[in-house]
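Collaborator request, handled under Task 6.
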Amino acid sequence: MPRLPRNDDRTVLVGRTGTGKTVAGLWHLSNYSYEKPKGMPWVIIDFKRDKNINSIDNLQEIDFDYVPTDKDDGIFIIHALPADVKGSTKEASPVESYLTKLWEREHIGIFIDETYVIGDNTGLELCLTQGRSKLIPMILCTQRPVWVSRFAFSEASFIQCFALNDDRDLQTVEAFMPIDFGDEEKLGKHQSFYYDIAEDEIFRAAPVPAMPAIREIFAGKLHRKRVRI
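Structure tokens returned to the collaborator:
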């Protein structure tokens, strides 16, 4: 039976568009607790206004000026723009600065959809390399692993790989996952290879539950309707 990620784990999900990686990432997120005393708040950074992410009720919309405090619980969402990853020669980008603030805050979860948009980012790498000690669980989704910081894979606790087309993307994943995709039977729709790094075990994973079921899980945990901060 595969293990699920915990509050000190980093999970990377890769796959081409339409393979189900974002839905799988949301399923992982739905299994966490977001309320005190055992849970922690999470922040979603959504670059593409994903319909599945935004179909979840009671997400709290914020911007880069707000970092959830120790009194907050639940799931917060930032609808980022590609321009938010561009800084200047003297200043970090809004995304980099915000991820650094989350690293300083500690004890907070981070979910990023289309992580490749961020590219090389000091704030992201701080969270990845020190996330275990600072209790910063992460769920990172991307369709182009070749464009993502290698720390996303080298510091991952779990890698979940859906179907990929580009040879460079396949080679990137194979460098961190003991698998030869050329020797494996083709994945079915929304299936994936799920790699537990600590146990050094790979599972051929069936599709996660569909979004209506996942929304029901969130609904049981995100009880209170909140306004935009």
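The cover message to the collaborator said: "DSSP finds six helices and nine strands in the chain. The radius of gyration is 17 Å. Please let us know whether this matches your experimental observations."
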